[in-house]
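Late entry, evening session. Most of the bench is empty. Finally got around to the prediction I had been postponing all week. Sequence below, unchanged from the version circulated by S.P.
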Amino acid sequence: MPTALITGITGQDGAYLSDLLLKKGYRVVGLVRRTASADVICARLKWLGIEDKVEFVDGNMTDLSSLIRIMQDVKPDEVYNLAAQSFVGASWQQPLLTGTVTGLGAGNLLEAVRIVNPGARFYQASSSEMFGKIQEAHQSEQTPFYPRSPYAVAKLYAHWMTVNYRESFGMHASSGILFNHESPLRGIEFVTRKVTDAVARIHLGLADHVSLGNLEATRDWGHARDYVEAMWLMLQQETPDDYVVATGRTTSIRDLCRIAFSCVGLDYEPYVRIDQAFMRPAEVDVLLGNPKKAEDKLGWKPTTSLEDMISEMVEADIARHTAAAHKLARK
């Protein structure tokens, strides 16, 4: 039974990756940091029904000693680094924290692997946000990076550290340059989930509008359930490498709203308001990935359309709010 260590296991990607690896017969161990909200941090794993099938170890991405101890105790065959301060908007308010956790944290984990178990295979969750002010219409592994947020800068540091450890120490270290990927497990602060949650509340009469920023920004959106499979496939290759993971289709936030509201038979325009507070200091206008390398070398392709994904998210949010209302009514 192979052992996988996942940082960021309580997030969207960590939950779906855990589910995938458990189904493949892995022992799955998740790094969690101590927090006052320990009773709710496993909500995504509970939603998938796998919380009791995963082991947890206490540690912190900013504490190299804890990462070394975990590597010694767990002895993982594969290490998936998904931990990050991952909300782009918050990175302008907390740039140093973002750099410490998202950037230097990856360096700490790479160093722990190198010191204790350099034969372990390492996956780094890189981000399409690193492309930022795009230099090519379709972004591939060869497209120059131009990060436009503290989050993107931190991710770029982690990405190049992964390349450096691969080239310097011969580690099997790969990066997945993942474009936007969503699901019913996406955090409420992200625009896709913010929209689908608002659609659910408006449909149920719990709200009358949603406030958003730049509706013309476009993103390449896929389903997280598809994207974690690409992560696993990277670590099954004989040679480590970096891969863009994307759908090759870009959609505006305006069209995202149109699709989401149509799931409940509504026109989006009367319900969407523009709020300058949600405008980014430096906007990334367009992201559109070229996943040809992942398709050719990994045999990977997305299986869920944007429309099906948004419908799934809206239905899940309606179910959540309906269940919460029934629970409140029983009190």
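Two things to note before I forget:
DSSP finds eleven helices and 13 strands in the chain.
The chain has a mean pLDDT of 94.
Will write this up properly tomorrow.
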